[in-house]
Design goal:
mainly alpha
């Protein structure tokens, strides 16, 4: 593993997040999916980020965790904006 690989705010790499995703549910799964979508957005891969963030919104809604839901909706807006889908991102 490269020591200069990009990391999320918890210090995890994208590969580590993908490995951790299996078995996660609820708010934890939503948060991991948001982080994965952020990595995709940072690479300019908004098309790949959108299904991740849609899954994150769904998991956050199921968890009833308002903070994670707000984070997921914010990330969804960023992703849609990156796709030039401005009306949907508002």
């Amino acid at each position: 593993m490269s020591t200069d690989a990009p990391r999320n705010e918890d210090g995890l790499t994208e590969d580590e997040l993908w490995a951790a995703l299996e078995g996660q549910v609820g708010a934890q799964r939503a948060s991991t999916l948001v982080d994965l979508s952020n990595f995709a957005n940072d690479r300019g891969d908004n098309e790949h980020a959108l299904p991740l963030i849609d899954a994150a919104v769904e998991a956050a809604q199921d968890s009833d965790n308002e903070q994670v839901l707000a984070r997921a909706y914010g990330a969804r807006g960023v992703t849609l904006f990156g796709l030039d889908r401005f009306e949907e991102s508002a």
